[in-house]
Amino acid sequence: MAVAVLLFLVAVAAFALSAVSGGGAGLIVMPVLGLLLAPAQVPAALSVGTALSSFSRIVSFFRSIRWDVVVRFVPLALPAAWGGVWALSRLQPVYLDLLLGVFLIGNLPFLLRRGTRTPGVVRPFRPALLPVLGAAAGFISGFTGAVGLLFNGFYHRMGLRKEQIVATRAANDVLLHLTKLWLYLSYGMLTGPALRAGLVVAAAAIAATLLMRVLIHRLHDDLFRHVGQAAACIAGVAMLFQAGQQIVRQDHMQARYATHAGEAVAMLSWRQHVFSVEIENPGDIEFRHVHPAFGSGQVPRQGEGWYRTSVLHLSPAQGIFITRRLSRARPA
């Protein structure tokens, strides 16, 4: 119950911010949904909320919709969304979430930059590329459940005003989300808990849209852009944190560092691989990779099966060379 209340409050704040910035609520809500649902159910629950949110924004900003953008964006977005949902049914999106988090944090330099660009400095986005943009948005949205602020910069480069961005994105998204909901249901991802969590998000989204309906008309375009960039950075940090935790847990990732007799060793284990860097005196460096050989399936640190070791040596005396060997026991 406490997590559900937290989800509602976070969703209200996220969708209120999204109404001002033009998107990004889903990326902020995803970490909280991850506390309630299995990773494969998070995109389905998110799509329930964002679909109803898009409906409410279409009603509120219908006159600002740029239909010329919608008719180019949607046709390829729908089949691409199927590809994203199909990939989600077979893969975990955690590494894509990690990359999206890095991409979103890339908005930080634009947020910290002083002054504003003149319109002539911004390279315009050609409408002919909208089908490609729609396909990319559809696939990523189907795979992760949200696209949010990833593509807002393209709308700005097309010269759309803030009301037009909010309305046009909602029109683009509503058919996409309905298609995804049908696909999630077909693949068994729209479960009872996912539907209930999605309805909580939907209620919060509609409340936020009603609250922010008047405010958006009073915002300066530059402030609108900066709010969007700030939201992107916040969402990126949240995605990096959540994805990092999940990767460490599911892939048994561990890191170690030790020094002994003037030598320093840093080691990282990931799945069935061990990567290490060893610095020896006087200035010799070794980059080592250990992994199971011959499909043994044994984790190197277990000390069983055959292991393949590859070492890149950097030595002032001997130069650069690579050695490889097989061993029955775990290499030291």
From TrEMBL:
Gene Ontology, cellular component aspect: plasma membrane
Coiled-coil annotated spans: none
Statement: the UniProt record of this protein carries the keyword Membrane: yes
Tagged with keyword Cell inner membrane: no
Primary residence: membrane
Subcellular location: Cell membrane
Transmembrane segments: 28-48, 69-88, 94-112, 128-151, 194-216
Family membership: Belongs to the 4-toluene sulfonate uptake permease (TSUP) (TC 2.A.102) family.
PANTHER family: SULFITE EXPORTER TAUE_SAFE, TRANSMEMBRANE PROTEIN YFCA
Protein name: Probable membrane transporter protein
